[in-house]
Write a structure and sequence with these properties.
Aspartate Aminotransferase, domain 2, 15 strands, about 400 residues, alpha/beta, globular, homodimer, 7-stranded mixed β-sheet, Aspartate Aminotransferase, domain 1
Chain lengths: ~400, ~400
């Protein structure tokens, strides 16, 4: 262990069932122990006590910006550039619609074919709705950079591939897009809380992400959106809701967007969900993303080393170079779904993504070096002893 | 009291601070006592225990439809025609975008100028985004029906006016729209849980609403959307997220809308907020909306009678005919904001909407005849004794 031992300081802050090694925080982060108390306080001490007055007395109205500032620190964004709300799908739509409006003479949305489906679906829905001849062009991840040319209005990529963990070079892609006048939207679903992101330093235009994975905000926790300050007052929010209005409580008949990132708010904020997330974010106080990244690499390298030693033929679906992957490791295996079920039966929770991908996420906040070695050893043991039941487990999907 | 005494059965199910008469459930419903326990169970017993497994083991994935069915009963809709998620603003956008796509040769969205601002803003944002020459035409509420002609693609109205409580004739407007080939979107924000709504019987096309008012779902609770079964498979969801896909977990590259109302789902559902709402909806078990409506009229009539007797000159901003108003009563008064503050100081919580509107909501679930009489008496006493401080309270907005 070369990096600071974050685990010693944070493991006790999480609720994890006895005997479980949880390598699926990349799908749904675990419960932070402080959350139930904080939620109970919001219910009884805020909603129950203040009723409608909670909007002002408990500060509910400002939560999207206040919680956004806390997320901003973790993704290399300045305070006042991130706002919370809605779902990642909705935030993708807002960013895409804004980007297309900023590049009215261009018709191409460029993405990669392995992007998480909802990003592609939202682009398809927007294109159909606009009906102006826009095109969603997708390519293999390694071919995307070469397709960035002056026809491209916006490059929309998920920084860390949800299946393989493959990592884009955010600085390089962003610079290449800007060189030809294109905008870039980064989906940070598998980045926020997982790796060091530098939105301001790489001059990214838009970024979006969810908070229920590495940020442990709970199932269906609110999403976030970042808009570069240089664009925030220019972006036209297609989803122009009253909380993005310059004066939401003046009840004016016409929409006037708020200045800055606030215009990306839409409807009434999901107060209880924001409070849940807010409590979960306390875990990050004093934690540096550079330290998390260093530790995450140590963990994933240890996992791979153990698996390589025990199952040299198991096909790694993730980049072998840790600098080229996010905080997850995936293997390609025909009976992957059944193996994941066998692992779960033995207390190791990873997950499966069709076709054939077994995924394991590494979160230094609650996984020790020993945990990861033990999980890898159990995987090796299951594979080498062929201890899985391919008849019992038909392949079926699970929630990412 | 002629109608069944709902209050006796339900008052004890709500947390209300000692000494408070809460006539603002039309803005934010109070906390249902069963909610904190249910939420604690979801946090510790579902999320904490099942982790990612909760999506299947705790049935999270089906919550939008399951809770939607419970809301459906309260708004005269069949099971399987309502789905929960997002915010009311987002649901307005989905309904509008779907309606415009169903009437591609028409360019008018007809609404009333007193509609809640976010409905108008979302229409404006959609129109700007489509950039196809659509027009948002607004008129006075009483003039809307006469403007329904063959230029109109969709009539978008809030059934109960948020300021005055003025009630549209849903059956009449819907029939008139259908007669000229127009569609109708009903915003039920101030209807759901407040009055008897018959979406199926009136043959409404779309309906949307929030659940944090009369349905007591909590601050920022999820919204709902209804699509008539005859349209559900035709509606093209502009916001085409993965949870509205026919096979969300197949991770297909192209969007294929689910059959029926499920296509109106967008992103990952807000599980904790849906659980909160689900627990709050238990209060409605065995309650008929016809009984609620009868009782609500008795309460509002009693309130008006007391105020009329004590302050004959106070201007009623709501229709005097109870059949023509929702479950609220509003008065127009120049110093209305200061009077509302004086009422709050004396334990009567109503609210204020610019310009000059004092609003009082009636919810038979937790307000008795005596409560309402007492609230009216305090209002009369404040007005007649001029017991308010207009200097101390500058007019400012509050959350609807």
């Amino acid at each position: 262990m070369k990096s600071p031992d974050i685990f010693q300081a944070t493991r006790e802050k999480f609720t994890l069932p006895e005997g479980v090694l949880y390598l699926d925080g990349n799908s749904l982060g675990p419960l932070v122990k402080a959350v139930p108390g904080r939620v109970a306080q919001m219910l009884e001490g805020e909603w129950g006590r203040y009723l409608i007055g909670g909007w002002n007395l408990a500060g509910w109205v400002d939560m999207p910006a206040r919680v956004g500032d806390r997320v901003a620190r973790l993704i290399g964004a300045a305070p006042g550039t991130v706002v919370m709300g809605d779902t990642l799908s909705i935030k993708v739509y807002q960013a895409l619609a804004s980007a297309l409006a900023l590049r009215p003479d261009r018709r191409v949305i460029l993405s990669d074919r392995n992007n998480f489906p909802t990003d592609l679906y939202m682009a398809q829905g927007l294109i159909a709705s606009l009906d102006k001849g826009h095109e969603l062009k997708v390519a293999a991840p390694e071919a995307v950079a070469d397709l960035i040319d002056e026809s491209v209005a916006v490059v929309m990529l998920t920084e860390v591939d949800y299946r393989t963990g493959r990592l884009y070079d955010m600085a390089q892609i962003t610079a290449k897009a800007h060189a030809v006048g294109a905008l870039v939207i980064w989906d940070l679903a598998h980045s926020a809380g997982a790796i060091a992101v530098d939105l301001a330093g790489t001059d990214a235009d838009f970024a979006v992400g969810c908070t229920y994975k590495y940020l442990n905000g709970g199932p269906g926790a609110p999403a976030f959106i970042y808009v570069a300050p240089r664009l925030a007052d220019l972006a036209r929010p297609a989803l122009s809701g009253w909380f993005g209005h310059a004066a939401p409580f003046a009840f004016e008949p016409d929409y006037r967007p708020a200045l800055g990132i606030e215009r990306m708010r839409v409807g009434t904020p999901p107060v209880l969900a924001l409070g849940t997330l807010d409590a979960a974010l306390d875990v990050w106080d004093g934690i540096s993303m550079a330290d998390i990244r260093a530790r995450s690499i140590e963990l994933s390298e240890a996992f791979i080393a153990t698996v390589e030693a025990g199952c040299p033929d198991l096909e790694l679906a993730s980049p072998r170079d840790p600098q080229a992957r996010g905080s997850q490791v995936s293997y390609l295996f025909e009976d992957g779904y059944a193996v994941i079920q066998a692992l779960i039966d033995e207390g190791v929770i990873g997950d499966y993504r069709a076709p054939g991908i077994m995924r394991f996420g590494f979160t230094p906040l609650y996984l020790s070096h020993e945990d990861v070695q033990r999980a890898a050893a159990i995987l090796v043991d299951i594979i080498t002893s062929r201890r899985w039941d391919q008849d019992r487990y038909k392949i079926k999907g699970k929630v990412t």
